[in-house]
Amino acid sequence: MPGVVPDQAPSKLEREVCWHARDKYWECLDAAGSPVVNKTLCVELRKVFESNCSNTWVKHFDRRFGYTRFQKSQPTEINLATTQAK
């Protein structure tokens, strides 16, 4: 995060700025749908996200976003498999 000393935890305001940048970036990814489209439409939001959050937070949020998408896809696939098995 800009202006944050590495050994110091981010302030409440810095965390809120990071979370807001993350949320805007995720909204763009969700709206774009395709990973290929995501890369072109959401580049600027990604830069803002990375500039407002620490590297470890960015890595954590990227994993969390990917896992959340994975979780959302699972019930649909399980329901399809169950329906096709009958």
UniProtKB/TrEMBL annotation:
The keyword Disulfide bond applies. Signal peptide: none annotated. Keywords: Disulfide bond, Mitochondrion. The keyword Disulfide bond applies. It comes from the Eukaryota. Pfam families: COX6B. It is found in: Mitochondrion. GO terms for cellular component: mitochondrion. GO terms for biological process: mitochondrial ATP synthesis coupled electron transport; respiratory chain complex IV assembly. Its main location: mitochondrion. PANTHER family: CYTOCHROME C OXIDASE ASSEMBLY FACTOR 6 HOMOLOG (PTHR46690:SF1). This is COA6. The lineage of its organism: Eukaryota, Metazoa, Spiralia, Lophotrochozoa, Bryozoa.
